[in-house]
Amino acid sequence: FKRSSQQIYNVTLFFLFFMSLYGLLGVQFFGELKNHCVLNTTDPKHITINSLAIPDTFCSVDPDSGYQCPEGMKCMKLELTRYVMGFNGFDEFATSIFTVYQAASQEGWVF
């Protein structure tokens, strides 16, 4: 029992290190993705699901880099709540850990 508990402890430490490392990398690289493609007629104070591009895509306001919105749409920074955007992503460390777990285990990938 003592030998197996030591091995479980080592695997758990490795797993936590893996989750933390990739969670931090995700926050650093993808944490600031808040720009979305919306219709040109969208009022920034009254965003609805119908205003967003389908599928919802992140975009770049810089015309020389990143994804550019299709014609008839513009790139706009949206401050949406967690209840609208969902609880996965790399906006903060806790949600990034959840996202890394979800990707590693493929949990919740089927709609």
From TrEMBL:
Membrane-related topology note: Multi-pass membrane protein
Intracellular or extracellular location(s): Membrane
Gene3D superfamilies: 1.10.287.70
Coiled coil feature spans: none
Pfam families the UniProt entry points to: Ion_trans (PF00520)
Residue intervals of the Ion transport domain: 2-109
Transmembrane in keyword set: yes
Entries under InterPro entries matching the protein: Ion_trans_dom, NALCN
MF (Gene Ontology): monoatomic cation channel activity
Keywords from the UniProt entry: Membrane, Transmembrane, Transmembrane helix
GO CC annotations on file: plasma membrane
Protein name stated in the entry: Ion transport domain-containing protein
Species name: Cuerna arida
Organism classification: Eukaryota, Metazoa, Ecdysozoa, Arthropoda, Hexapoda
